[in-house]
């Protein structure tokens, strides 16, 4: 069987091809374009399609895929807020995801963002490229003794907390239920408002769903310390970006590190360097000297991508064998 994979990076393609080749039964055709309304017709005749995190898998796209003969959509990510699962059920499509990959990849990158904005690494690097070695405006802060607020203490949040503990920080957490491993590290669980008011560093590690959309809204931002650092390596929709821009224009926050953006689809993972970007909010966000925006790359390590690919291969095997697993979002019709 030949599998069609959308949104595959140049680094990912050989890994994906080798993983399926090891199975001995399948080949994979890798495309760098993302799955959406304009590209869905390419999948005609492919029983198995693999999508990336920024794919558009709304009802209209799923209709096109189903009409073209697709039976399985194997998404290469943990998040699945881009998939209309109800439409998939109606159309008899099987949908899978990757429920687990290295939490350290994302947690370590979240800390990379935090320290980069804290110690003004990008500004310093840009200066030294011009042989400007002044220290003016580069003063950061020690993390030891300060307070880390972790919103979401699952696997990634726990990994982030362990690093914060290593820095010698006071630990505050917010989640539906305490994580015993975080409690053992000394984390105190508090209400979201109390966490935001007390934390010097706030990092987001919760999934995006209706209950968490704009979890960090205007009210939440206003409750944070003026010199706090805010990091989001989870999903862009967790932050009300317009409200964030307003706070930044008022001169608030020591630094903001964002690996995700709520309107990133159609922009992130693409080269827009020769185009005028029509998103005024993103354009304004990037201009702030205390803001660092990266391109949804927190997961992008050899370890994590390898695990994502291996899980995708297993998901295809499970589908062909009629099995379900923890990765199955919509099972095959009975």
Describe the protein.
It is globular and about 60 Å long. The chain has two domains: 2-101 and 301-330, Rossmann fold (3-Layer(aba) Sandwich), CATH 3.40.50; 103-293, Rossmann fold (3-Layer(aba) Sandwich). The chain is 36% helix and 15% strand. By secondary structure, the chain is of the alpha/beta class. The longest helix is centred in the last third of the chain and has 20 residues, at 302-321. The chain has a seven-stranded parallel sheet, sandwiched between helices. Strands 2-1-3-4-5-13 form a six-stranded mixed sheet.
What is this structure, in a nutshell?
It is an enzyme of class 1 (oxidoreductase). With 334 residues, the protein is an alpha/beta fold.
The CATH class of the largest domain, by name, is Alpha Beta
Major β-sheet strand ordering: 8-7-6-9-10-11-12
Spell out the helices and strands N to C: EHEEHEHEHHEHEHEHEHEHEHEHE
User: What oligomerization state is this entry in?
Assistant: single chain
**Distance between termini?**
23 Å
In percent, how helical is the residue content? 25-40%
Q: How would a textbook summarize the main sheet?
A: 7 strands, parallel
Shape: globular
CATH topology of the largest domain: Rossmann fold
